[in-house]
Amino acid sequence: MSDEKKLAIIATKGSLDWAYPPFILASTAAALGYETEIFFTFYGLQLLKKDLDLEVTPLGNPGMPMPMGMDKWFPVVGLALPGMQGMMTSMMKKKMASKGVADLAELRELCQEAEVKLIACQMTVDLFEMNTSEFIDGIEYAGAARFFEFAGNSDICLYI
Amino acid sequence: MADFDQELDASGLNCPLPILRAKKTLNGMESGKVLHIIATDPGSVKDFEAFANQTGNELMESKEVGGKFEFLIKKA
């Protein structure tokens, strides 16, 4: 067993905004010398797809800053209009690019380069009948016991 | 600013990219060599301090020059 610090993360969400915290924290931890593993379960498995087609939704999210005072013009029900999610997603992507926020695929690659272990929940893969050929290479498929093997010895453990 | 051996321009990049790029560049450098980093992310001031504290690489200098943040880090 090494004396490196360890970070264990469970990634459970599959939207564009929630895709960032696991990869930002994991890549940074790796740069600081942490041994890091991310266990992807349920919607978090979307973050392992080769084609990262993630969206952000303003629905049910009163904390989301809306551009151009849109929240005043569109009451909650307006946010459910067809096309709204696509529009918010494209605005969010533009904003991120203009602010120099890393591209998700790039952050994920940096994680893999830094030997962050990415583990896909086998149960979720089976449950949603996901096609593993759609996932990136270099990931492990395992269950909860595999997570605890690492998390049990971790210094930091996050559920995202 | 003191002499340095290598330079990294992380201008326009946001957290955590300046740290990740710096780490990658330091990986390719020999112990004792100095990396000069330029960043525009205001968060990088505290982040490079924390990076140095946790990795053992020495933060020799940290200053703001014309709205940009400059750092000198000596590889451990």
From TrEMBL, chain B:
EC category name: transferase
MF GO annotations: transferase activity
Keywords: Transferase
Origin: domain of life: Bacteria
Enzyme nomenclature, EC number: 2.8.1.-
Entry's family note: Belongs to the sulfur carrier protein TusA family.
Protein's name according to its UniProt entry: Sulfurtransferase TusA
